[in-house]
C-alpha cells in the first residue's frame, strides 16, 4: 500500500475548492455515563464452587455423548445446550452427535421424530452446523393444494420451531418462505392467548429470531424460560446459571477496563464532535465472540471499533478538507514523527492509535504472530484512504457513479478493517 495518498486515488472533478466549514452533527452524549467505571474485581470461585462447576460440566458432557433410545431426545438436549449459551464447552461432542443424527437421517435409519417440532429442530440444528439438509423435508406438512395443513395451527410449539427453521432459508427455497409467512401470521394470533413461558418465547422469537439474535441475549432469556417449563435437566440448569454468572462478570471486567481507557482519552474535551459509543462498540464485539478465550481479541477489536468511530467522525463531521489531506498522508506513513504536523485534535487520535497497535504487536510477538498486526495496520491505513475519497467527493460536490462508489463503500463501512482486526 502506498505510503502517500495517490493523486489518482480520487479522480479530479470540478467543484467547490473554497475553505469548508466544519460539518458538526451534534451527536447525543453517551447514555451510559460512568456506570461501567465502578470497581470490578476479578471473580474468584471458592474451591467448592469450582469443583461443582467442573462436575456439572462433566455431567452435561456425559449427557451429550450418552446413547439414547431416540435421536429426538439428543436433538432436544443439544438445542437446550445451545440456547442456554454453554455449547462452547462442548463443540466436539455436539458435532459428533449431529454427525450421527445426520447419517441416520440421510440413510432413513431414523424411526422417530417425524412430528413438526422435531423435524424443524433437526433441520435447524443440522443446517446451523453446516450439514447439507434439504427443505423438501417439510413437504409432508402440506395438503393436496400445496398449502401448509390447517392442523398445524394447533401445534404451537411446532409452528414456533418451523418459524425458527425458516430463517435459515437459502435463495430459492420457496417452501421456507411460505413457512415463514404461515408461522408468522399464526404465531402473532396466539401470542397473547398461550400461557407463560411459551408466550414469552413466541414474543422473543417474533421480535428477534434465533438466527438474528445475539448468543448472550438468547442465553439470558432462555435460562428463565427453560426453568419455567419445569421439565429441565437440573444439572444443565445449574451449569448454565453458573456459567452465565462467570461470563457476565468477565465481560463486566472487560468493559470496565476498556471504559477506563476510553475515559483516559477525555473524549468529551478532546473529541466533543464525535459519537461517544464505547459501550455499544464492546457490545457489538460480544455479538461476534463472547467466549472467555477470545478476551484479548475482543478487547483489541473493541478499541479498533472505537478508534474507527472517531476517525469516521473526524472525516465526516469535523475535519476540514485541508486538514484531512495532511491527516491521511500521516496515517499512510504510520510514524510518530508525523504527529507535530497535525492539528491538536488529530494528534491524540494518531498517537493513541499507534499505541494500541503497538501494544497488540508486543502481545502477539510472544506467540510469534506479530505479522498479523501489520495486516491490521494496513487495513486501518486503507480505512483512512477511503474516508478521504468520500471527503474529497463532498469537497468537490461530486456524485460518484455506482461503479465508483461501491468499491469505496465496501471498505468505508468498516467490515473489512474489523474482520481483519478480529483475527
Automatic annotation (TrEMBL):
Q: Which Gene3D superfamilies match?
A: Farnesyl Diphosphate Synthase, Terpene synthase, N-terminal domain
Start and end residues of each stretch annotated as Disordered? 1-21
Terpene synthase N-terminal domain segment(s): 32-206
The UniProt record lists the keyword Transit peptide: no
Keywords for the protein's UniProt record, in alphabetical order: Lyase, Magnesium, Metal-binding
PANTHER family listed in its UniProt record: (+)-DELTA-CADINENE SYNTHASE, OS04G0344100 PROTEIN-RELATED
Q: What is this protein called?
A: Uncharacterized protein
Amino acid at each position: 500500500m502506498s505510503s502517500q495518498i495517490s493523486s489518482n486515488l480520487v479522480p479530479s472533478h470540478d467543484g467547490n475548492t473554497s475553505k469548508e466549514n466544519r460539518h458538526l452533527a451534534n451527536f447525543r452524549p453517551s447514555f451510559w455515563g460512568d456506570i461501567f467505571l465502578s470497581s470490578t474485581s476479578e471473580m474468584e470461585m471458592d474451591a467448592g464452587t469450582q469443583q461443582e462447576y467442573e462436575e456439572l460440566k462433566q455431567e452435561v458432557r456425559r449427557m451429550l455423548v450418552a446413547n439414547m433410545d431416540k435421536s429426538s431426545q439428543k436433538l432436544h438436549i443439544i438445542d437446550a445446550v445451545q440456547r442456554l449459551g454453554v455449547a462452547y464447552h462442548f463443540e466436539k461432542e455436539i458435532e459428533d452427535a449431529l454427525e450421527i443424527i445426520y447419517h441416520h437421517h440421510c440413510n432413513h435409519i431414523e424411526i422417530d421424530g417425524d412430528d413438526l417440532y422435531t423435524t424443524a429442530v433437526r433441520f435447524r440444528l443440522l443446517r446451523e452446523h453446516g450439514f447439507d439438509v434439504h427443505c423438501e423435508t417439510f413437504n409432508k406438512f402440506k395438503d393436496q393444494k400445496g398449502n401448509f395443513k390447517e392442523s398445524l395451527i394447533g401445534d404451537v410449539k411446532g409452528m414456533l420451531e418451523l418459524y425458527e427453521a425458516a430463517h435459515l432459508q437459502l435463495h430459492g427455497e420457496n417452501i421456507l418462505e411460505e413457512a415463514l409467512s404461515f408461522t408468522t401470521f399464526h404465531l402473532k394470533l396466539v401470542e397473547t392467548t398461550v400461557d407463560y413461558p411459551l408466550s414469552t418465547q413466541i414474543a422473543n422469537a417474533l421480535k428477534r429470531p434465533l438466527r438474528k439474535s445475539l448468543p448472550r441475549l438468547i442465553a439470558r432469556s432462555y435460562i428463565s424460560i427453560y426453568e419455567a417449563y419445569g421439565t429441565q435437566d437440573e444439572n444443565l440448569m445449574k451449569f448454565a446459571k453458573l456459567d452465565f454468572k462467570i461470563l457476565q462478570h468477565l465481560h463486566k471486567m472487560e468493559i470496565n477496563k476498556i471504559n477506563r481507557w476510553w475515559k483516559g482519552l477525555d473524549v468529551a474535551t478532546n473529541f466533543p464532535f464525535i459519537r461517544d459509543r464505547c459501550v455499544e462498540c464492546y457490545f457489538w464485539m460480544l455479538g461476534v465472540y463472547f467466549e472467555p478465550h477470545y478476551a484479548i481479541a475482543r478487547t483489541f477489536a473493541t478499541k479498533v471499533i472505537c478508534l474507527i468511530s472517531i476517525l469516521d467522525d473526524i472525516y465526516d463531521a469535523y475535519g476540514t478538507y485541508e486538514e484531512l489531506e495532511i491527516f491521511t498522508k500521516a496515517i499512510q506513513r504510520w510514524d510518530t514523527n508525523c504527529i507535530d504536523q497535525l492539528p491538536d485534535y488529530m494528534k491524540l487520535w494518531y498517537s493513541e492509535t499507534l499505541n494500541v497497535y503497538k501494544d497488540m504487536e508486543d502481545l502477539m510477538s510472544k506467540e510469534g504472530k506479530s505479522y498479523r498486526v501489520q495486516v491490521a495496520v494496513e487495513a486501518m491505513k486503507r480505512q483512512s484512504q477511503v474516508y478521504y475519497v468520500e471527503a474529497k467527493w463532498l469537497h468537490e460536490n461530486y456524485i460518484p457513479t455506482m461503479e465508483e462508489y461501491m468499491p469505496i463503500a465496501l471498505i468505508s463501512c468498516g467490515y473489512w478493517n474489523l474482520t481483519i482486526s478480529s483475527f
